[in-house]
Amino acid sequence: MTRRTGGTKRSSQLTFRRRLLLVRLLLRAPASGDELIAAVQRELGDEGYPPAAQAALKHDLDALKAEYGCQITYRREFGRYELHDLGELALLDLPDAALEALAFLDASFPAGTALPELTNVRALLDQVLRLLPASRQEQHQRHKAAARLSLPGRGSGRIDPGVLATVKRAIDERRELAFRYLSTFDTTTPRRHRVAPYGIFVRPEGHVYLDATLLDVQPRGGETIDAAIDYRLDRIVPGSAEVLPAKLPPARRQPNPNTLPNRLNPA
What we know:
267 residues, Arc Repressor Mutant, subunit A, two-stranded antiparallel ribbon
């Protein structure tokens, strides 16, 4: 009777680690063979792939498909591998209470949402669902959530992706932001607002707003400088938003107490 040596056992463990790492990488995004090999080498170092790395990679991917039923395809036109289904390689399971919460979120964030930020939530839910065992996925599909959040739908004004990206960058970098804005007080011509941006939020009626402190507006109107203002993102003129060099102060500026603060809430 041949006994398994310690070296053989360690080799099997490393092979299993390497294949799980490939699954993790492909769950994140499609990748080329060279990208997968490089990521494995960074993670495992000398215990990664041997010199004949491409052949070993193909062997690993074939094993994942044969042993676990993973659906992995190679898109020749893009030169990348894509993971479509984990098969029997379930990487996550949830207790019934958590599955109930997942059903609630799934019903609250349906596909095709109009709000850009909510599409990321939908993508996260889809990723969690695909990690579940097939039986739990089927249980989730059969289950109908008794409650859901009432979130804005397609009635919201369209937010320009460039505007959203610029606003988010200004918030992340804590820098002043300037843009042209057409509020309900402006009849035909948008005005240039310079603000200190602090966050983005959604109101129950479905509009997405920028929470900001007004630093300057040209031409001047009735707004109070240093007042907190809610700007509807879909009213910011596309192509006009720019992140300015000036950094935000440590504390949020407050309006002069001798002036009447004005909270701008465009409809």
